[in-house]
């Protein structure tokens, strides 16, 4: 059944791949983006509704949320993908680094979920006017976290802490929004390298997993598909990490 899904950070990489895949499967996509790339125009031509917004700007985000509520009567799911992988040694002060990580990975998802939850609940209840049990778990919120939320990271302390906080919100929102809305985390590890990741970095990073590979966006797409089709999974985290937790240094 076609769903209307809001995805944050659709301009490139995983968010862009998710948006294109969901559009190809007949879903309606509402996307937010910070920087404009040709991919944004492409998604618009494919039927997506796209909104420019720096999610760290509270007033700008409030304005976009109000426009989304005015322009879209139906919303079945939210995928919080937007993220800034900021190392601790980045030139900003420690306080600014932590504030920036918490803003994009915690405050923005919190603001979005509280603003749009009534739309998600209404969609679930409308799924079947006769069978109230059909509303159970019919809508979704997905927080894309990171393997390091459970493990920590000595070079991305603020980033990892903010992703751990994002997963904690999965637990809180799952309890708050049940039974109509399911809330789950997807905790990836090595999905896509970045431009500029040299061969030495790639080898070192791949060696950290017992399945040493660059997983690709299809691994995230598969978990999203599963969660969209489930009516009984909530408050959980789905690790997509090549067995990083079983890595043992030689
Ligand atoms: N790639 C990987 O291997 C892994 C990814 N993940 C997680 O998966 C998700 C997607 O990863 P990936 O595609 O690599 O992410 P990227 O860092 O490549 O892109 C994230 C997107 O978020 C947007 N964004 C960043 N900051 C802001 C902001 N302040 N306001 C609005 N949008 C913003 C970026 O926009 P812009 O183009 O303007 O910068 C970009 O489109 C993220 O949550 C990430 O933490 C977790 C583990 C591994
Ligand atoms: N917003 C982002 N978060 C993360 C990225 C990224 O490119 N953007 N990349 C990683 C790494 O792939 C890491 O998982 C390798 O061990 C982590 N988070």
From TrEMBL:
Coiled-coil zones: none
Gene3D superfamilies assigned: NAD(P)-binding Rossmann-like Domain (3.40.50.720)
A GO MF term: dihydrofolate reductase activity
Keyword NADP assigned: yes
Catalytic function, reaction form: 7,8-dihydromonapterin + NADPH + H(+) = 5,6,7,8-tetrahydromonapterin + NADP(+); (6S)-5,6,7,8-tetrahydrofolate + NADP(+) = 7,8-dihydrofolate + NADPH + H(+)
Alphabetized PANTHER family for the sequence: DIHYDROMONAPTERIN REDUCTASE, OXIDOREDUCTASE, SHORT-CHAIN DEHYDROGENASE/REDUCTASE FAMILY (AFU_ORTHOLOGUE AFUA_5G02870)
UniProt-recorded name of the protein: Dihydromonapterin reductase
Native source species: Shewanella denitrificans (strain OS217 / ATCC BAA-1090 / DSM 15013)
